[in-house]
Design brief:
TIM Barrel; 2 domains; 8 strands; 267 residues
Length: 267
């Protein structure tokens, strides 16, 4: 087995110029497959709200639900670093709640790091978690938990003032001690500038080619989720089509009494 991926190793990958591959995972089976394929980070995303629960946003997802899914992912991985998203209201209300909830992800679920959306306003929170010994991945730009403030899932940082805010957010995340930062839904030249300015790795999603790594929602890249398809998603397979064909074959064989056959029966 390849060497276990850790938060410090992710930082060293940037120093060595190695690109970082990140995918979301929500259960044991997918975690095993992605881990064995060699992904560096398994992100237990609050995107579970959309692709697993069928919610319109990530906002309804709870800490207990995230811990449940994180536990399942941890059981399925051997090498990858497991990062758990801290869902809406799990860290915004108070510093004490943020510390308690982040601690639960490590203690109860077995995660090795947590991800927090926001920059300058959450500098103190990130700092407190890092001081507790909890590795933190930041997330700036388009932050889905702020969807209502943005008025929808829109590219951020097109205006000069917005660009400055996002850059300051990224710098604050690094200053607070995070080991990496997700850059979502921002112009690629801004992502390039941030990646150049930061000593910690940038993980892009809709942020162009210049980031130190890339993340996709696994259901998006496999064609399993079709409620909406962002421009930045590349579909690497049509797994939905494969499943549909398999299910249709099963139904047909049941109705035609071809399944179960002799080889599937006991005597």
């Amino acid at each position: 087995m390849a060497e276990k991926v850790t938060a410090p190793e992710i930082k060293r990958m940037k120093q060595r110029g190695e690109k970082i591959a990140v995918l979301t995972a929500y259960d044991y089976s997918f975690a095993r497959i992605l881990d064995e394929a060699g992904v560096d980070i398994l992100l237990v995303g609050d995107s579970v709200g959309s692709v697993i629960q069928g919610q319109q946003s990530t906002l309804p997802v709870t800490v207990d639900e995230m811990i449940y899914h994180t536990k399942a992912v941890v059981r399925g991985r051997r090498r990858a670093l497991v990062v758990a998203d801290m869902p809406f209201l799990s860290y915004q209300v108070s510093l004490e709640e943020a510390k308690r909830n982040a601690g639960r992800f490590l203690q109860e679920a077995g995660a090795e790091a947590v991800k927090i959306e926001g920059g300058v306003h959450f500098l103190e929170t990130i700092e407190a978690l890092v001081q507790m010994g909890i590795p933190v991945m930041g997330h700036v730009g388009l932050t889905p938990q702020s969807v209502h403030r943005f008025g929808g899932y829109k590219v951020q940082g097109k205006e000069k003032e917005e660009r400055g805010i996002i850059l300051q957010d990224a710098l604050a995340v690094e200053e607070a001690g995070a080991f990496s930062v997700v850059l979502e839904g921002i112009p690629m030249d801004l992502a390039q500038e941030i990646t150049r300015r930061l000593s910690i790795p940038t993980i892009g999603i809709g942020a162009g080619i210049h980031c130190d790594g890339q993340v996709l929602v696994v259901h998006d890249m496999l064609g399993l989720f079709d409620m909406y398809t962002p421009k930045f998603v590349k579909r690497y397979a049509d797994v939905r089509g494969i499943i549909t064909d398999a299910v249709k074959n099963f139904i047909a064989e049941v109705r035609e009494e071809k399944f179960p056959g002799e080889e599937h029966s006991f005597h």
